[in-house]
Amino acid sequence: MVRFLPVLLALLLGLFPASARADIEVGFWTRELGLELPHAFFTIDGTVDGKPVSETYGFTAKAITPALLWGPVPGRIDIASKGYMAASHKLYTVTVPDAAYAKLKAVVARYSEKPGSIYRMNERNCVHFTAEAAAAIGFRLPDGKGMMKRPTSYMMAVAAANKDFPTLKMVAHK
Question: Which residue, among 88, 86, 96, has the nearest Cα to 133 in the 3D structure?
Answer without folding.
Answer: 96
